[in-house]
Specification:
By secondary structure, the protein is α/β, with parallel strands linked by helices. The protein has a single domain, classed as TIM Barrel (Alpha-Beta Barrel), CATH 3.20.20. The chain contains 9 helices and 14 strands. The strands form 4 sheets. It has an 8-stranded parallel beta barrel, surrounded by 8 helices. Strands 3-4 form a two-stranded antiparallel sheet. Strand 9, helix 5 and strand 10 form a beta-alpha-beta unit. The mean pLDDT is about 95. Its cofactor is Zn(2+).
Length: about 280
């Protein structure tokens, strides 16, 4: 079992509207401030969705490049771009995210019902995303929304080889309406299947909404890592909206320290994930 905890912050996402969640960081300046605050607390990775001038989700390549550059200049965080975008984004735009040259990018392992929508990830698209990241030296985080996605990942790696850097890291996204529940039993089922993946595979877990705390505790107890942020919940406790991403990262850090697995530094996270040293 690892002795430290990799903490990823997902500060914005593509679902919440700024008008409904005023504390949501949607401008580049807000995102940079958030990144600095969360890095100071113990986050080592930032999972990034961006917004346009109208505060709506966008995959504009110029904005993505500007965001990657600003985050690298202002922090040591590992910059992980979402290749999922919003559920309505076309595949070509999602693949073009890699042109922004992030350290990492998400790679979702299959289609899943997503509330009232469908998050479409065809096998051919998954293969294309995986192989393009191999070619460009971008490290994937394989997003797992349901148990069958782990079998898809096993198939992907057996047919198309290990990711850039050689290390396999997955994130169990739990509690999405339409995906697997955010329960200890579901997490245990996933960790049992992880044993079929290459030796040394690591995992983090994300609890959506009210599953945030149960998933954090279950992941830590099973030797896993954590992802938290306003992409995943905008409620801190019953009747208490989240005031900032700092609040969520601070809670994750506190739980990690109670588990005697303090936060991992960005440098250690880079070594774990097979990333090049940040220059």
């Amino acid at each position: 079992m690892t002795t430290t905890t990799l903490i990823t912050v997902a500060p914005t996402g593509a679902e919440s509207a700024k008008s409904d969640v005023p504390a949501l960081p949607v401008t580049l300046d807000e995102l940079v401030v958030t990144a600095k605050e969360c890095a100071a607390l113990g986050a080592s990775v930032i999972h990034v969705h961006i917004r346009g001038e109208d505060a709506r989700p966008t995959l504009d390549l110029g904005r993505l490049r500007e965001t990657v550059a600003a985050l690298r200049e202002s922090t040591d965080l590992i910059v992980q771009l979402s290749s999922g975008g919003a559920v309505t984004d076309p595949e070509a735009d999602r693949l073009r995210v890699l042109d922004a040259e992030p350290d990492m990018a998400s790679c979702t392992m299959g289609t899943v019902n997503f509330g009232d929508d469908v998050f479409l990830n065809r096998w051919e698209f998954v293969v294309d995303l995986h192989t393009r990241m191999q070619e460009r030296g971008i490290v994937p985080e394989y997003e797992i929304f349901d148990l069958g996605h782990l079998a898809t990942l096993e198939r992907l790696l057996s047919k198309h080889g290990l990711p850039a850097g050689g290390h396999v890291h997955v994130d169990f996204v739990m509690g999405v309406p339409g995906g697997m529940p955010g329960t200890t039993a579901a997490l245990v089922a996933c960790t049992n299947e992880v044993r079929n993946l290459p030796e040394g595979t690591t995992f983090a877990a994300t609890g959506i909404g009210r599953t945030t705390i149960p998933v954090m505790l279950a992941s830590l107890s099973a030797g896993g890592h954590l992802r938290v942020g306003m992409e995943d919940t905008v409620t801190y406790a019953k009747g208490r909206p989240v005031e900032s991403n700092m609040q969520l990262v601070a809670r994750a850090v506190g739980f990690a320290q109670l588990a005697q697995r303090p936060p991992m530094t960005p440098a250690d996270a880079r070594e774990l994930l097979g990333l090049k040293t940040n220059s």
